[in-house]
Amino acid sequence: MKEMQKMTKAEFAYFVLMAFSSGVVIGIGGVASLLANKLFGDAGRLIGALLFTVGIYAIVMFEMKLFTGMVASIPKMGRKNFWQLPVCFLGNIVGVGVVAVLAYFSPLKDMGIVNQASNLMLGKLNAKFWYLRAFCSSILCGALITLSVWSVKYAPKKSLSATLGVIFPIAVFAFCGFDHSVANMLYIYYLGQWRWEIIPYCLLSIAGNVVGGIILPLIYLLKEHIKTH
């Protein structure tokens, strides 16, 4: 990966655009998931989880930049490239924000997605030991995200479907309701009120996604170390 000082303005602009685009498709998947949960009752949770996968599928297919996907590269990224993570995250949440605004002023608002998102976020913030739940939940999400994005590289080696490898872990984390630091922003935008817990909740979700996301890469680094010694 390139160091910041070696990245041209055009390359940097493209990086930001890909981060923004990731946020857009995550936001679209999130809106679709909210609508499914609102319309289909208990079955909506599963339908919504499947619909949410459209975001990660598009990100992997078009090589967009998603914060939780980039986390897997941290062990080999090098400190001079760490700047890419916060830049990517900011691009992601701006993209989600644009979708939130567009959906708000569309017929989807009348279909209940705003109330659905607000109630979901309030449930997270009002839960007992919410800080512990946020961190643990986001660790599990981070691990599944890495499993998803790495499937493109490793699934074909095992004669497995890369498409299923990408989609299945995402459907699992969405169905279980694990915390994705970028997707959570959609619910926060629709919360409609300020709560002091929002900032620590976001920080814990980011930290958990990082911890969970680097587990598999660290295991592979250990494997490589054992082979060479």
Describe this structure in words.
With 229 residues, this protein is an all-alpha fold. It has a single domain, classed as Up-down Bundle (Glycerol uptake facilitator protein). The protein is 75% helix and 0% strand. It contains eleven helices and no strands. It has helices at 9-39, 41-61, 67-70, 74-77, 84-104, 113-126, 130-154, 162-176, 184-189, 198-213, 215-228. Helix 2 (41-61) crosses helix 8. The longest helix is centred in the first third of the chain and has 31 residues, at 9-39. 42% of the residues are buried.
Task: Briefly summarize what is shown.
The protein is mostly helical. The chain has helices at residues 9-39, 41-61, 67-70, 74-77, 84-104, 113-126, 130-154, 162-176, 184-189, 198-213, 215-228. It has a single domain (4-228), classed as Glycerol uptake facilitator protein, CATH 1.20.1080.
